[in-house]
Amino acid sequence: MAQGTPVGPVFKDGEAQVVPAFEDSDTWIRHDLWVETDFDTDGDGKPDRMHVSVTRPAQTEEGLKLPIVYVTSPYFAGVAPDVPGLFWDVRHELGELAGERAHPEVDRRVERPVISNSHIKDWVPRGYIVVHSSSPGTGLSQGAPTVGGDNESLAPKAVIDWLCGRAKGYTSIDGQETVEAYWSTGKVGMTGTSYNGTLPLAAATTGVEGLEAIIPIAPNTSYYHYYRSNGLVRSPGGYLGEDIDVLYDFIHSGNEERRAYNNATVRDGELVPGMDRRTGDYNDFWAGRDYLNDMGPMKAALLMSHGFNDWNVMPEHSYRIYHAAREKGLPAQIYYHQFGHGGPPPMRMMNRWFTRYLHGVENGVEEEARAWIVRERDDPQNPTAYPDYPHPEAQPVTLYLQGGSPGRGMLSTDSKGPKVKEILIDNYSFDGAALAKAEITNHRLIYLSPELTEDIHLSGIPEITVRMSSNKAAANLSVWLVALPWEEGRRSRITDNIITRGWADPQNHRSLSESEPLKPGEFYTVRFPLQPDDQVIPAGQQIGLMIFSSDKEFTLQPAPGTALTVDLRGTQLTLPIVGGEAAWKAATR
Fold it and tell me: How many Cβ atoms are within 10 Å of 78's Cβ, its own excluded?
């Protein structure tokens, strides 16, 4: 570069390149500040201020303006310890409440001026400024954590407003000396994983000007879908007994002097009564924490990322928002991989997204494939492009059940099987894997396809209809879709055994918002979707539908003994199969 030539971003093949002049971290300018919001959630009578840190190339002190990659989180200042009793006790009858749980305090960790170093090495050398902020009621940010409440959307909005010159920033938490973002172009992108991926969506639903693009990774887009399933109290995978009030305690790392007020008003006054662990019904509390309901103002371009085997934040979370964004006409792409929680898109995809919408480089990304899916044995950096998700050639194929209890029954497209009712006995002590592998057991019902002679490509959302009765007024209902034989050992992969799953409360067979006790012996029809998937089931496998009651890893655990009777003539499984019924028949003949 010639002497005296201004340093700026460099682009090649539609991607921002690493610029040597931006690469030396010793020259980066790092500072922090507080942005004032228009809400007061900690009850001190003053607008809450959010703690913000900035990392930018030295050239921004010489007149260079750059776009922003912004990351916000409730985790930056530490979380509560995992003490005994932190989670709700799940071993009790349905409709009852467990005893009080433990409420550990967060030991706040704060370093200034650095809130976090995440994403800095990826983006600052490529010609971006990286901004971090702590969520309300965490770290040095004022306010109260609300776990999906309005302030978690309005806090990042205020930071973006400051980056665009519309809000006030201050050098201290309570002073009046102001700070301006004179180095900002006013173009902001957000990204993050899990809770940190939820908050970009929260900000985007405000319609804030300047937020041009978001890349949420494994985001929780509805706290109801995270802690409930079709009326059933269900834990996220790996956190049996967690609920929204537990997450509040886990992240509440803010000002120690305001914690008692926050606990009384938010946790005990809003979260605990609103979440309703007794029935699991959908209500106004949960509706207010579902970002799908808030997407009206959203304008940001959306690149969504998720894993099909994420049993913590399940894959439906991303699909429901992607689908709504497409219907709104927003630029939207979705990247799905075959692994568990987390996992960003390849850097080249993220780079092209931010290059297009933050730098304004016309790289044609909006004309590329809408869906990018990592096939079962492929590197996550090498996804396969598809016109959309679900696959446009996927068609629903309805499968019917033929009895075999306590052994294994059959799945077929023949709807004229004999009138058969089969019974399973609930016992949470048997986990789902053990039930799927068992040749004979009365604790589940399982129905298998013929051994596949050709691969079957599933793409979309399977649906299950169960005609059932219970000998008690309440029962868990769990469904797994599995591939058998069950693979174990070092060479087994996450895609080998569980295709997808779902859960429901039969008491909500009429309404998600109003449950009704079951009349023992009376039959009810329960219909619900399983989790989205895109998977190729190889020849030599059998596809199995397993119906059982309590799922040891996810549901409440009532005393064993509840009997569920399933009417096979009223029960069916619908699979989204690429090629439809013709593909199914070719693979099962």
Answer: 15
| Annotation marks residue 310 as catalytic | yes
Q: So what's the pLDDT on residue 5?
A: 65
> Alpha-carbon dihedral of residues 357, 359, 360, 365, nearest 10 degrees?
-50
Amino acid at 370: R
Cis before 113 (ω within 30):
yes
Q: Which of 337, 341, 457, 509 is catalytic?
A: 341
Is 341 noted as a catalytic residue in this protein? yes
Q: What CA–CA distance (Å, rounded) separates 228 from 236?
A: 9
Residue of 116, 184, 194, 229 marked active site:
194
Q: Kindly provide the b/e burial profile for residues 338-365, where b requires at least 16 CB atoms within 10 angstroms of the residue's own CB.
A: bbbbbbbbbeebbbbbbbbbbbebebeb
Neighbours of 284 (CB within 10 A): 9
Peptide bond into 406 cis (omega under 30): yes
Stretches in the chain below the pLDDT threshold 70: 1-5
Q: Is 299 left (phi over 0), alpha (psi -120 to 50) or beta?
A: alpha
Q: Which of 59, 349, 49 is nearest to 174 (CA)?
A: 49
pLDDT tens per residue across span 399-419 = 999 999 999 999 999 998 888
Three-state secondary structure call for residue 525: strand
Q: Select from 155, 117, 108 the least CA-distant residue to 136.
A: 155
Q: What is the pLDDT of residues 327-355, one digit of tens each?
A: 999 999 999 999 999 999 999 999 999 99
Q: How many angstroms separate the Cα of 305 from the Cα of each of 19, 274, 563?
A: 27, 30, 40
Could you report how far apart the first and last alpha carbons of the chain are, in Å? 67
The SS3 assignment for 554 reads coil
Distance between CA atoms of 15 and 85, rounded to whole angstroms? 49
Q: Output the CA angle 575-580-585, nearest 5 degrees.
A: 95
**How many alpha carbons lie under 13 Å from residue 225 in its C-beta half-sphere?**
21
DSSP string, 357-371: HHS-----GGGS-SE
Q: Given this model, what pLDDT does residue 4 score?
A: 56
Integer Cα distance of 238 and 61 in angstroms = 47
Which residue among 42, 310, 426, 534 is the active-site one? 310
Query: What whole-number distance in Å separates Cα of residue 519 and Cα of residue 509?
Result: 13
Alpha-carbon distance of 372 to 353, in angstroms, equals 14
Q: What is the DSSP letter of 271?
A: I
Peptide bond into 485 cis (omega under 30): yes
| Beta bridge partner(s), residue 307 | 337
Pairing of strands 533-537, 456-460: antiparallel
